[in-house]
Design goal:
- The chain is of the alpha+beta class and 184 residues long.
- It has two domains: 82 residues; 72 residues.
- Helices cover 27% and strands 33% of the residues.
- The protein contains three helices and nine strands; from the N terminus they run αβαβββαβββββ.
- β1, α2 and β2 form a beta-alpha-beta unit.
- Keywords: Signal.
Length: 184
């Protein structure tokens, strides 16, 4: 049994935790005006708030611009939420959130494949290409949301001389740009 003194201390601690959580919520850029549900689905509002917060907790999402229940993908047993997120680059993207575990259903972008496809297009006129490694090297650095890959390869000139190249692909938000330069 708690004494009055312990009860007051416990109450103060509980209030402190509530206010700490409330101030955290005020710092969160979740704008509840961006959340929308059809009148028929207003019972899902708390889930929608949780889904929007789950999207906002992802490193790529810095602000929720819009969130709603995805009526095409949801079933009576399972809710799926569509959240339009703003990323640091200023571009928006859609995050799909599972209504059960509030985890992202959006597949990660595969910039390495997009880079490889662009590299093959840029090198299709080169003669006798030999790739020095099967997979690209993933390079560190760059801004958030930017992925970098490097391939080393050799080719031949029209005269049959050996040429040595390095290709670097920078994919900013999934949009690849390939630069090919001589390798020493």
């Amino acid at each position: 049994m708690l004494s009055i003194k312990e009860g007051v201390g416990c109450t103060c601690l509980c209030l402190l935790l509530v206010f700490a959580n409330a101030s955290w919520a005020l710092d969160t850029p979740l704008n509840e005006k961006a959340l929308w549900l059809p009148a028929k689905y207003q019972g899902h509002y708390i889930e929608l708030v949780s889904a929007a917060q789950a999207a906002l907790d992802l490193p790529r999402c810095i602000e929720v611009k819009q969130a709603t229940l995805d009526l095409r993908q949801s079933t009576p047993e399972k809710s799926i939420y569509r959240v339009l997120c703003l990323q640091e680059s200023g571009k928006t993207y859609t995050e799909m959130i599972d209504g059960d575990g509030y985890v992202s259903l959006t597949p990660e972008k595969n910039s390495a494949m997009a880079c490889h496809k662009l590299l093959l297009e840029k090198t299709q006129q080169m003669i006798d290409i030999s790739w020095l490694e099967g997979k690209p090297k993933s390079l560190a650095g760059g801004s958030e949301g930017e992925e970098r890959y490097q391939w080393d390869f050799d080719a031949k000139s029209l005269d049959g001389d050996a040429l040595h190249y390095t290709a670097v692909c920078v994919a900013d938000d999934g949009v690849p740009k390939v630069t090919i330069s001589a390798r020493r």
